[in-house]
Amino acid sequence: MSEDLGRYLVAGTRVGLRAFAPDDAEEFTARARESRELHRPWLFPPCTEEAYEVYAGALTGDPARAGFLVCARDDGGRIAGFVNINNIVRGAFRSGALGYGAFVHAAGRGLLTEALAVLLPYAFGPLELHRLEANIQPGNAASRALVRRAGFRLEGFSPAMLFVDGAWRDHERWAITAPETEAPAQRL
């Protein structure tokens, strides 16, 4: 399996994270369609190749976003899910909002737990972020458990925070900050 490490930006024992690419459209959208029941009502990844093109294009072409496919290394690199960092703010804030989802064939196997474990050092290292936030609807127990395992802390509750599935939904705000190190050099 060590021969596949070059395919990924970061990798763990069972998962590798890589950038979205146009030729992933067919596999990603097939997995999204297979996973509709798992994702609803929390998540709505693109289910058509046209929607994927827009979605992936925004993740790869916007400096305020970073998107990663979670690939199962023990399954030939098959796409197991995705992790995105949205609303990246630089400067003194150095923060981003985390979004993620597992596909049904990979759900419950710990692959997203490992994906977050390899993503966090990358986000706090090469991406130079200090804080990641995850906004989760209170009824989404699996998502709450995932961020808790990753070390996120519950910071608050926001009523009617995000417009999801045709309505303004309440969300819990979870966050994690980079391990304490010396302050970064001021950039002029």
Written overview of the protein:
This protein is α+β, with helices and mostly antiparallel strands. An 8-stranded mixed sheet has the order 1-2-3-4-5-6-8-7, with helices on both faces. It has helices at 25-34, 36-39, 49-61, 111-124, 141-149; strands spanning 10-11, 15-18, 66-72, 78-89, 95-102, 131-136, 153-164, 167-177.
State the name of the first-level CATH class: Alpha Beta
Terminal residue distance = 44 Å
Q: What would CATH call the architecture?
A: 3-Layer(aba) Sandwich
CATH names the topology as Aminopeptidase
Helix content: 25-40%
- String of helices and strands: EEHHHEEEHEHEE
Query: In what order do the strands lie side by side in the largest sheet?
Result: 1-2-3-4-5-6-8-7
Work out the count of structural domains: 1
Strand content: 25-35%
Query: What is the averaged pLDDT score?
Result: 93
So how many helices?
5
CATH superfamily: Gcn5-related N-acetyltransferase (GNAT)
What is the overall shape? Answer: globular
Low-pLDDT segments: none
* Helix-strand category: alpha+beta
- Tell me the radius of gyration: 16 Å
Number of separate strands: 8
Main beta-sheet strand count, sense and barrel state: 8 strands, mixed
